[in-house]
């Protein structure tokens, strides 16, 4: 049984060196440093050539394309093989930045059984910065070295002769038919919803058995495989099976001879009769992530937040941002021509076009060959505060909102945030602060804020929706933050009708959610309000109760909800 994180790292890398294609690869979550370097130093022992990828690599580099220089110089089509043409160890640094398109292409290449093995170097700093699920599901080994100090590591020993012998022995390694069933049941109890996980665990056990010189998988191989493959994937703590409420049956009369044998065999008999599922379950429990509950809570908050992100939404354009692969297009739209990609698209047709053309020219390019440059940029985020300014405590709430706005604006230059403020009181709502990043302008606008009157919550949400639609048209990514402590009592038509006001507020919340704008509801009342919790559910937004919160707590809560 592997004891210690680094021991599991060594065992996992040796198993991967025995069956790299069968295990799929390694998801290594670790920052760049000497600890990760020790893992990288062991990769040359894997029996395949190493090839490095980039998170934004294009299809031509992956699958191959035309060698433009050789084609133009020789006058004949010369193709160039891609990185996926031959089986290789694909090392993917900055794996947390992998786009869904690249993840799908790599997953497809691995599913084709061409022998590729992926080493994903995940350097994500936050729980949501991680490798796409399409790849983590296909990589048998998951290792997290972020909390591992250098003093608990050592050089990884890789015996090339023993690994070669294990690879030769691997096809003959067998496992009992019930082993896969036990692994599948264990995966279900750990909350793993993928059937690939138990199959990868079985392959890891066979690789370990071959490495140990055995022709059959034993209990130690399965225990190590469970700790390497299943335990890091766990999404819940395994629950004990529910016992039936039926009265216990009378046991059969004891056999004196059997009793003597049990007394003589004693402890060894009980260990031998322990079910394999229970043994593997205890092994998995011993290596479950210590922060499993915290990670589950963070994922739950992220789902409740409706996809709120610390950065603005990604957009595709043709002017600025990070370059992404070009696509076929026209030049009459103000787009920028990708000359190299255009020449590559035209190169295969030069022989035919020269033969058909009545003009003598060295290069024949048509509109179908045009490739347009594309860039991916992140839009600025707009945080729209919708503040309840009604009632006798309005000045206190507005003062807290003012402090929170100023604190958030102090970070606006680093986080590319804009802030707007909508106050609702009396019979209507008012846009007090249009979208801005100017702290000076914000302080001037917030110097004197009126308060008192009824609670026209629907009017506040309507004004926020209109502002969100306008800002979205200007290229921003709006998020609505509602701060209130009471129920709506003023309808959209200005009448004092609680029932109609609640219906209007619900309709506005449905409209905000239908437009896809993320939101959050901050309850600043002394006691949690059920109607606000229901409104948050309608918005698809997190509900955050903060009784008597000051500006610092309010700013911290908003930042945490945005970064969840």
Automatic annotation (TrEMBL):
<comment type="pathway">
    <text>Porphyrin-containing compound metabolism; bacteriochlorophyll biosynthesis.</text>
</comment>
<keyword id="KW-0149">Chlorophyll biosynthesis</keyword>
<protein>
    <recommendedName>
        <fullName>Mg-protoporphyrin IX chelatase</fullName>
        <ecNumber>6.6.1.1</ecNumber>
    </recommendedName>
</protein>
<dbReference type="InterPro" id="IPR027417">
    <property type="entry name" value="P-loop_NTPase"/>
</dbReference>
<comment type="similarity">
    <text>Belongs to the Mg-chelatase subunits D/I family.</text>
</comment>
<dbReference type="Pfam" id="PF13519">
    <property type="entry name" value="VWA_2"/>
</dbReference>
<keyword id="KW-0077">Bacteriochlorophyll biosynthesis</keyword>
<keyword id="KW-0602">Photosynthesis</keyword>
<comment type="function">
    <text>Involved in bacteriochlorophyll biosynthesis; introduces a magnesium ion into protoporphyrin IX to yield Mg-protoporphyrin IX.</text>
</comment>
<keyword id="KW-0436">Ligase</keyword>
<dbReference type="InterPro" id="IPR011776">
    <property type="entry name" value="Mg_chelatase_ATPase-dsu"/>
</dbReference>
<feature type="region of interest" description="Disordered">
    <location>
        <begin position="303"/>
        <end position="330"/>
    </location>
</feature>
<keyword id="KW-0067">ATP-binding</keyword>
<feature type="region of interest" description="Disordered">
    <location>
        <begin position="237"/>
        <end position="269"/>
    </location>
</feature>
<dbReference type="InterPro" id="IPR036465">
    <property type="entry name" value="vWFA_dom_sf"/>
</dbReference>
<dbReference type="Pfam" id="PF17863">
    <property type="entry name" value="AAA_lid_2"/>
</dbReference>
<dbReference type="InterPro" id="IPR041628">
    <property type="entry name" value="ChlI/MoxR_AAA_lid"/>
</dbReference>
<dbReference type="InterPro" id="IPR002035">
    <property type="entry name" value="VWF_A"/>
</dbReference>
<keyword id="KW-0547">Nucleotide-binding</keyword>
<dbReference type="InterPro" id="IPR041702">
    <property type="entry name" value="BchD/ChlD_VWA"/>
</dbReference>
<feature type="domain" description="VWFA">
    <location>
        <begin position="382"/>
        <end position="562"/>
    </location>
</feature>
<feature type="compositionally biased region" description="Basic residues">
    <location>
        <begin position="313"/>
        <end position="328"/>
    </location>
</feature>
